[in-house]
Specification:
The protein is mostly helical and 107 residues long. 75% of the residues lie in helices and 0% in strands. It contains seven helices and no strands. It is elongated, with a radius of gyration of 15 Å. The termini are far apart.
Amino acid sequence: AKAGQVAKSAESILAADLFRRVPMRAFAEQAGVSESSLKDHFHAVFGEGVSDHLERLRMERAEALLREGKLSVLEVSRVVDFANQGKFSAFFAKHAVCMPREYRRRG
C-alpha cells in the first residue's frame, strides 16, 4: 500500500508540472523516502522508471497538442520543453515512429 501511495504521489507531482526540472532527490524528499525506494515503488506501480514515465507524459501532451492543430510544431516543441524543434522532432519520431507534421496530417 505504501509503495502505491509513494508512487502515485510522485506521479502527481510529475503530472502537475511536466517541465519543471526537479532532481530525483527532491521527489524522494517530497515523498518521504530514499531515491532508491522511490524508484523501486514507482517501477512497481507504473511498470516503468520515473524518467520513462515523464517522457511518456510529455509525448502524450505533444500528441494531444498536435491533434488539436492550434499550435505550430515549433510551438508544441516549446510547450513540451524542448530547446529546439529538431530535438523535439527526433524525440517525437523515436516514440511515434513518424515526424510531428506527419502525425498531425494523420490526425
